[in-house]
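Long-time lurker. I teach an intro course on protein structure, and each term I like to show students one example going from raw sequence to a predicted 3D structure in token notation. This year I'd like something fresh instead of my usual example. Would anyone be willing to generate the tokens for the chain below so I can use it in lecture? Attribution to the forum is fine with me.
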Amino acid sequence: MLSKLEQAAHNLEEARELRAAGSTYRQIGRKLGLTSGQLSHIRRSLKREKSSATRLRSTQPGASSRDLPVSQCGLPAGLRKSLTASGYKTLGDLADRLAESGRSGLEATPGIGPYRTTLVTRLLAYHGLSSGHGDLPAEIERIFPEFF
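-- Reply from a regular --
Happy to contribute to a lecture. Here you go:
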């Protein structure tokens, strides 16, 4: 049995995949068995993600998902606030922190425990930024810092 927070995160991931496949919000709600409040939460989260990506790509045409702001990603509001208060501005900053082997993970950050760290790692995996996915822009930036 999942907790309410875990179920909400799971529903958001499922809805993200269904929306990418072209399902309407009504179909998503019926398929996942969501209430109207849960569906509106998902709709707001997905809209926030899409609008931030659109805004970023219109201002910086060569931007990637590494450049998406943490304050506008699909994470819960409290977690977004904790991460931005800790100095993480983009998803690339989070990916770099998790990829560094010499430092402790995000659990060392105040207010972020193992569950919240799994939310962050799943979001980074969705965007292809987790260390196991071969983050090419991060490697280029690490090798050639003078170009960035």
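Some talking points for your students: The two ends are 46 Å apart (CA to CA). The chain has a mean pLDDT of 84.
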